[in-house]
Amino acid sequence: xxxxxxxxxxxxxxxxxxxxxxxxxxxxxxxxxxxxxxxxxxxxxxxxxxxxxxxxxxxxxxxxxxxxxxxxxxxxxxxxxxxxxxxxxxxxxxxxxxxxxxxxxxxxxxxxxxxxxxxxxxxxxxxxxxxxxxxxxxxxxxxxxxxxxxxxxxxxxxxxxxxxxxxxxxxxxxxxxxxxxxxxxxxxxxxxxxxxxxxxxxxxxxxxxxxxxxxxxxxxxxxxx
Length: 225
Hints:
Elements lengths: L1 E6 L3 H13 L2 E6 L2 H10 L4 E4 L2 E2 L2 E2 H9 L4 H4 L3 E5 L4 H9 L4 E4 L4 H19 L1 E4 L2 E4 L4 E4 L2 E2 L4 H12 L7 H9 L8 H13 L5 E5 L5 E5 L1
Parallel strand pairs: 1-2, 1-3, 3-6, 6-7
Antiparallel strand pairs: 4-5, 8-9, 9-10, 10-11, 12-13
Helix pairs in contact: 7-9
């Protein structure tokens, strides 16, 4: 069952949207303002968001930009359909440029909204089955990593480390953070496991145009050669 967060200031309309999507096998979270929406997102990353622009405590477009720059990559990628009375061409262009995946003006057909949301979620699923950075890709369905389509033959922890680097390109990632995320526990004083995995992964990245550098022993960065 897909989870949908609906943010709509008009309570009657919000109830109707919630009832409609619930009848079509969605789990629906509802919010009348941005504060309520943010509270939902603390505990749940929905599969999609239906978002009004004019809200009592802020602008939906600003909220969408906030989500798109969220440090949590999964939250930043959540597909968003704007549903609003602002339906002039300039409004639609502004919304799509701000990061919306779809845009539907009011008044609207519930059947059309359902079709738009389903298509949006299907497209998002296809995109999230693979993460890429330049010629490097990791396919979550096959569990394999590739450089220009050629399998890298990575061990499990090497693949997990590469994924973290791809999700945070050009960012300094500490050895302690890598160890916690990949090995699932706090790192002891001996950081050799991280160093050895980085060394093996660096060799397998040869020819990709990327390498892993150690920034003054403070952490590791995946950057272009």
